[in-house]
Amino acid sequence: MTRTLLALLVAAAAGCTAHEREGLQAVSRPDVSRMAPSAQTQVRTSYETLTRKIEKRSTTAMELANAYGEFGKLLMAADEREAAKPCLVNAQTLAPGDVRWPYYLGHLHRKNGDLANAVTSFERALQLKPEDVATLVWLGNLHLDEGQPAQAKLNFERALSLQPRSRSALFGLGRVALAEQQYARAIEHLEAVLRQDPQAAAVHYPLAMAYRATGDTKQAAIHLRLREDRQVLPADPLIVELEALLESPQTYESRGIQALDNKDWPGAAALFRHGLELAPDHAALRHRLGTALYMMGDVAGAQDQFERVVRTSPGYHLAQYSLAVLFQTQGRHAEAIEHLSAALEIKPNYTDARLRFANGLRHVGRAADALPQYDQVLVETPDNSEARFNRAIAFVQLHRYRDARRALSDAMKRYPDQPFFAHGLARLLASAPDDTVRDGGRALALVQTLLGKEQRTLDLGETFAMALAASGRFDEAASVQRDLLKGAANSSLHAVVARLAHNLDRYERREPCLTPWTDGELP
What we know:
With 523 residues, the protein is an all-alpha fold. It has 29 helices and no strands. The protein has helices spanning 3-13, 18-21, 37-55, 61-77, 81-94, 100-111, 115-128, 133-145, 149-162, 167-179, 183-196, 204-214, 217-226, 237-243, 249-261, 265-278, 283-295, 299-312, 317-329, 333-346, 351-363, 367-380, 385-397, 401-414, 419-431, 440-453, 458-470, 474-490, 494-508. The chain has a domain at 421-523.
């Protein structure tokens, strides 16, 4: 063993020197009283470990760095960022070659909105680990946020060269191209992300902006409807480790939400159950467990969880809403209305609940009461196509066929890419009992256009037969209806068979259909 190596080993084994401890920042334990009991225990234990390491003069610099760093990570996981900061700074001071500490500091600064220090920390982490894709992507995102797309582009391109299928790097390049007004390139990158992951909902908004800038308003509208407030994040083992660190209901909820986003329903349910073991009365956790169970096909289990939340936390509007949605799928509209009404009392601007409330009112024969609810939805969300369509259906239920025709005609112009308005108008024109509204020729023209563009469905076939009959072409209408009847019988659609047979009888008697939608067909 050489003298130099021996000296290094002795130094490594020796305690942390006074010089190394100079400049370290003071650390304190935050108030843990609001944390879950299990998390309180973790924080206290980690703080006690750190205190012992500090007091023990033989503690090496590396040991002390790890103690500071682990306590800082725990505090960061608990969202105690101000208390975590000096811990991570001390860890970095004592172990300047450990990439973890500048990396975690970068995220801490980023969450605090301190972009300049976040960039500095991530750049330091990148110096220690130059080929880390996650660090490159986070740096690129920060440079974009700072209005520096050229610098961001270098980071994303480097990340993509290291990991050619990195969705987060492709997404970043798409955002860079959008910022640089290179719209065709932005579309290319963003569509590439969707080809890899069709569920990457965060892509739709920037993609819509890129299509709008190129003049493709149809594609822009499609992607705007699909937008969600999500992110396309890099694979990030250090953050995964951090998020799993704290034994608290909030940690399990956060991890469960990630599992839901990844469509890992069983994994999400297991995480939510772990959280409920720590906090049985946690309304959000139990509601999310119900959601995961529903996605797994366990409707009874989901209903049980939603009902438990409503009983124990009636002010939790999301559970009221979810239970109502479940009841509506079961045709239990009166019960759904009760829960939707409760949700709206708690949160009057809950637009989705108001829309379902209006639909429920229609289904229990209260179409007149539904109309002002639809109007309110359209005040809150003017581009809500579902509300516009169902409002037109309410007019039909009230026998206000001219108002329904006007509503559907206006919506067709407003939403040219949404065929259900044209289909609805065609059915109304083909079968309205009001002779001043019924117009077989126009109905037939609309249906023929739809047949040339859309997939042929039973509903569209029915409307085609209605339009033929309204145009006086009863033999053709009967022929189409017989084909539909045969297909429905082969598929054992017994309720549909009865309806089709009724209209076939009318066509054979050379009478048009005068019922646009039966009660069972109403959307």
